[in-house]
Amino acid sequence: MRPCRHRMCANLHAAWLGHLCGLCLTLRDEHGHRARLTINYDGLLISVLLAAQSATPTRYRQAGPCALRGFQGASVLSPTDPGARLAAAVSLVLAAGKTRDHVADRDGALRVAAFAGVAGKLADRWAAAGARTGDAIGFDTGVLLDAVARQTTLEHAIRPGASVLLATEPTESAVAAAFAHTATLAGMPGNASGLAEIGRYFGRIAHLLDAVEDYADDQARSVFNPLRATGTELAEARRLCEDAHHGLRLALADVELRDRTLARALLVREVGDAIDRTFTLAHHPSPGGHRSGPSAPARLRTPVEPVGSPYPHGEPVRSPYPHGEPVRHSGRRSGTERHPGGPRPDGCDAPLLIGGACALTACTCGLWQPRWSRIRREKCSSRCWCTRCCDCPDCSACDWCSCDCCGCDC
To answer: Does position 150 have pLDDT exceeding 80, yes or no?
Structure first.
């Protein structure tokens, strides 16, 4: 999850960035600059969940200018915060496991024995560093290492026709353990089981989405992919993701959080957007045809479709456009073209000037929505965060509402 500041409330995006930069600085201060390569964006949920449960205010400090923030300063999570340290431990151990996996597969430059040896030593160093940080806050990283080991064993045992959930189980267990430990650190032991359930669902979704995005690359390199190995169709993968997301939302509602705003924005809205985005791009590759070369993102390449591929040629599982497919254009959009069968998708059947104004305000109140968004073709008032919040009869039950972060005055 990498929330876009054009779609997220400014306060929430600043809070998320504070957790991200806090994790980065924690890795730097405790384990050196190279450890910052292990940053896991989804691992930020660990510090977010701990902050949401903590009775004491989250510790922040002012960080200096950074190139990744446009040389701006920021208020970031303190490197001594237990949430940042737990996220750092998890990031290090999981990065070590992933590096070892690449070494075993001899990916890219790792086909050279010298490079593979260096990568293996770096993975060992990261695993040891993660274990030290985990021990300091009472978290046994052995559960993560065990999950990595079981993943390798399962990949060799899975056969066509088996449930794809057999392949996701180690990831689910690892994330569940990390999420549950935030309840211990926050002094909220009653939340442990609920957070473990959230972690299992989140781990399942993350593993399946990763498999969908990497399907073409894994096929080309003859690398294990759980969807291809089990013969799971794309429709079934999406059903499993949406069922897991539904369970995640129910579990989150049952967990006692003192401030659930950022956690709900990430786990409900951003995870839902990630599901829509991944499966929409799987069905509708980016315009412009096939892109080759190492710089082309895997999810944007036209996939090679072998027999049994989860990318069928038929209709999509579920269209992300509730009012019909958008008109395809070969050239630049003028902002005033008419759509057949109805008004413009933004509800503003008006000149270019108004369309430009809508585009400008998108940066502050969420009017702009990507092509995989479920509300892309809704009218302006339905897409604006502020309007949706104020018109929502029950904010606690609304997936898209974020008015509790800014009081509808953004």
So the answer is: yes
C-alpha radius of gyration, the chain, whole number: 22
Mean pLDDT value of segment 126-135: 94
CA distances from 248 to 50, 121, 267, 345 (A): 17, 37, 8, 31
Distance CA 395, CA 399 (A): 8
In terms of average pLDDT, the best of 226-235, 327-336, 390-399 is: 226-235
CB 264 within 8 A of CB 60: no
Q: Which two tokens stand for residue 354?
A: 């108004």
Angstrom distance (rounded) from CA 79 to CA 133 = 12
| Average pLDDT over every residue of 157-161 | 90
Q: Contact, 159 vs 146, CB < 8 A?
A: no
**What are the tokens at 58?**
């989250």
Asked if residues 86 and 139 have their Cβ atoms less than 8 Å apart, the reply is yes
**Whole-angstrom Cα distance, residue 5 to residue 14?**
9
Q: Does pLDDT of 164 surpass 60? A: yes
Q: What letter represents residue 177's amino acid?
A: A
Minimum mean pLDDT among 60-64, 283-287, 307-311: which range? 307-311
Distance CA 110, CA 121 (A): 13
Chain position carrying tokens 């989140």: 202
What pairs with residue 339 in β-bridges? 342
Q: Considering the entire predicted model, what is its pTM?
A: 0.73
Q: Tell me the pLDDT tens digit for each residue of 71-120.
A: 888 888 888 899 999 999 999 999 998 898 888 878 778 888 888 999 99
Exposure of 22 by Cβ count < 10 A (0-12 exposed, 13-18 middle, 19+ buried)? Answer: buried
What is residue 296's DSSP assignment? S
| Percent of the chain with pLDDT strictly greater than 90 | 45
Residue found by looking up tokens 């579920």 in the block = 318
Cα-flanking dihedrals φ and ψ of residue 342, to 5°? Answer: 165, -175
Query: Are 204 and 240 a contacting pair, CB within 8 Å?
Result: yes
**CB-based contact 366:7 (threshold 8 Å):** yes
Closest CA to 263 of 28, 83, 10, 44: 44
Q: What is the largest CA-CA distance in the chain?
A: 63
All residues at 6 or more sequence positions from 383 whose CB lies less than 8 Å from its CB, including other chains: 346, 366, 367, 369, 375, 376
Tokens standing for residue 102: 């690449």
Average pLDDT over residues 17-25: 91
Q: What is the secondary structure of 331-380 as a DSSP string?
A: S---S---BTTBS-TTS----HHHHHHHHHHHHHH-----TT-TTTTS-H
